[in-house]
Amino acid sequence: xxxxxxxxxITHSKNILITGPTGSGKSW
Length: 28
Known about the structure:
Elements: H1 2-19
C-alpha cells in the first residue's frame, strides 16, 4: 500500500508543479 501511495503522490506532485499556483508545492 505504501508503494501505491508513493506512486500516486509522485504523479500528483508533477501535476502541481506544472499547473499549481505559487505556494502549492512547487518549492519541492
